[in-house]
Amino acid sequence: MREAAFIQRNKSRWEAYEKLVSNPGQARADELADLFIQVTDDLSFARTQYPASRTTQYLNNLARKLHLEIYRNKKEQSNRFITFWTHEVPLVVFEARRPMAVAAIIFIIAMLIGMVSTLYDDTFVRLILGDGYVNMTLENIKEGNPTKVYSGIDAVTMFVQIAWNNIMVSLRTFIFGVFYSVGSGLMLFYNGIMVGSFITFMHKEQQLSQALPVIMLHGTIELTSIVIAGGSGFLLGNSLLFPGTYSRIASFKMSARKGLKLIIGLLPFIILAALIEGSLTRYAFMPWYFKTLIIGLSASLMSYYFIIHPYRLYHART
Fold it and tell me: Are residues 59 and 3 in contact, defined by beta-carbon separation less than 8 angstroms?
């Protein structure tokens, strides 16, 4: 790459970094560390391609400034625990909005495929959910409670099992993104197929109006969390597919840190979903208005934290 093209491609980004370091204390230490990695990667490229140029000198000076600012801000703020969830995670969510949109699209398409396949093939739901689960659900329907499975064990044991399982599912969905995003896509696709197949199965058994509100008591948060975990996996995989002007290692490190923030940020929501599933979902015949309230509050929480708040926060900073 010619030096002029290299400068033109990265000039606006370097100027933004200059502005940041000229205002000490404006950026967090971890944010400065990400910028330092980016600048040193640019510096490494410049030293190789244009060793004696003014561009290399400029980048060396900028890296030095960032390095000094990092150590000036090394001491963590006392409210870091709070700002992690109120600022850091939402900003990463906004930055990863396109991968998350792709994750949502894949999940919805998979749901539709699961619905259509189950609608026209009676054996498909058994292939996806297993004979044991389908037979158990049919027995529960005969007994008048299609979601009886949620009351099979005590609330505490169920909460622990569900929370652990959902954390592992989200973590795998994120980590599998290392396979150039394909792994995360397959996890989303499989989960979408299962949801769509189950919904249509209940529809064919004429139990959807009873089962769907019960499932969505916890499913509103749980399914949204899976999609977000898929988006974080795409963020990881895309760093290897499209590293831009950075080396793949540098790009991967930056995206891995951001993706891990998303997964950690999901933990309270995953635990909340498990708490609802373990303690409330078992009451299948609770009043409809109580179900509507819980689903509505859950949808509002996820919409605000993962859509509205990140948008407002980002534009308040720019």
Answer: no
